Amino acid sequence: MWGCRVGSASRSCLLHIPSSLSLPDLSYVSFEELLQMQNGMGMRTHRVTAGKKTAHPAPSRVFSFRPLEMSAKKRVPFLRRVVPVTKKVGRDPRFDDLSGEYNPEIFLKTYGFLDSIKKREKEMVQKQLKKCRNSQAVLTGGLELSLKRQQRELAQQGKKPFYLKKSEKRKLELAEKYAELKRSGKLESFLSKKRKRNAIKDKRRLPSQKSL
Amino acid sequence: MLQGRITASVGLNVAKLQDEVCRHLASILVDNAPAKWLQQQDLTFLVGEEERAEEEAFEDGLVAERLKEDVLEQKGRLQRPVAKDVQPPDPDIIRVLRGHQQPITCLVISPDDKFIFSAAKDCSIIKWEVESGKRLCVVPRGKKGTEEQQAGHTAHILCMAISSDGKYLATGDRNKLIMIWEAATCKHLYKFTGHRDAVSGLSFQKGTHQLYSASHDRSVKVWNVAENAYIETLFGHQDVITGLDSLSRECCVTSGGRDGTVRIWKIPEESQLVFYGHQGSIDCIQLINEEHMVSGADDGSVALWGLTKKKPLAVVRQAHGTHGSHSLQQPYWISAVAALLNSDLVATGSHSANVKLWKSGEGFRKLEPLFDIPVVGFVNSLKFSAAGDFLVAGLGQEHRLGRWWRIKEAKNSICIIPLKRKAGVADSS
After folding, report:
1. B44 in A contact zone (CB under 8 Å)
2. What is the model's pLDDT at position A78?
3. In this predicted complex, what is the ipTM?
């Protein structure tokens, strides 16, 4: 191949070379031999050994006011970040220096209000529990339990256990409910409320004034 | 041409040197010769020499001045001090040309300053003659059936551009189309499709037939009009592109709306320079010379930019003031900016009932107000003539991009505002 002078601009390297290292002059080497060298060494090492001493200066603070230069060929995704959303970094106060040293007196003083809140909550929960105990939830539980006991007895005796249908279970529950209401004397008010509710529902089905 | 000028100046210098030598010798003679001998001699030649030398020095100065200007223009830093000589015009010499039925959205002036092309929300284009104010051509809106016979736009025309030789006119509309027309006859030539949303910015590269287009699909496309070809697409903006401008370099500048950036696209290198520092949505942009530009935003701020700094060189906030009730004071949106090429004169328009003229300081580092020109309505487009003789404003009852407000008293028209210069100033352009 014809030997030609290769321009030094194409061989700029990106690493800093110590001035003590003497570089070979590759200006008069032919292209073919250069390519062979490159293929043997790899592009980066070739650049390092054959390139000029001058390296690209690292972006110093002087150039921070210049506009940012970017490639114009990369497609921008449709969804973009409009408001910068930062991840919430959680801190563990036990291991964080910001919380300081643990002082039991100060801790009890500042967080003493939590005890009163706890007490209040405990009272509320106990009240609710009392209410629940007296309500039907326990009764239905009792009904189911009695049924289960019955099945177990039958199975023990050798007879086949039978299971009630859902509708049968509901009937039994309703009977229990009525008995309870009668006992407490609230049957009349319960029935009247039920009648009212049914009346309203039936009224909706009737033809209204507007449709006339 | 430049080389010719250099040799001319060099030639002058040689002649000047000869004159210098002659004059020096003559002065020595005059100093040392006896007075009686001098009286007898005819020394009128010396006076003639001085006059000629002065003339030549003057010419030499002019040539040097012109050379300096050329160099600055190439570098992109030319700033002719025109602003201090401009005077506020009388209201009666402002001409109003009416013809469009709906608000004007954009306009361009032909490079020879003889014709004005304007487009409006009624999708029509009108060619006006500047001197007489007559309508030369009207391109009406396109009808559904007759697309082949009578080409026309079917949606709002958002932008227009004319090539620097006055041959081609390009218009872009909300239907993603760019139409190319022959400027002299208003004949439809080509249709460029490819954009995926409204075309919002168009500009020809000066001295060529290369067209840059920007769109609401956040891309910039490069086309060659003479060969009816698409060249390439450039990406980078993160919001709709609201404006585009270019000069004779193979670069164009775009304003990116809500992403708050102004980008310079270097087409041969396929890279972009990103500038930011403007608050609000940047709505309009124009190049003053190759390295400086002026932009306007919807928070009322006008900014001057230079290529070497990522932040604006000068910012004027709430340039047109504020409006609204006591507690809800909103700044007037800047809907149009214009700059006289290679000078320090900048004009901004909003719907604050006037067009404001500004003077940019030395090196574009300051922006000072000069005076206001009263107009009624939304100033949707502003353009300076090439020679700086007049300023054309496209007015409408509504903003060119939407109908947030409507000014009933305004007339949809174009205003030709002649700019007077102070007497006794030679126009070097």
Report:
1. no
2. 78
3. 0.72
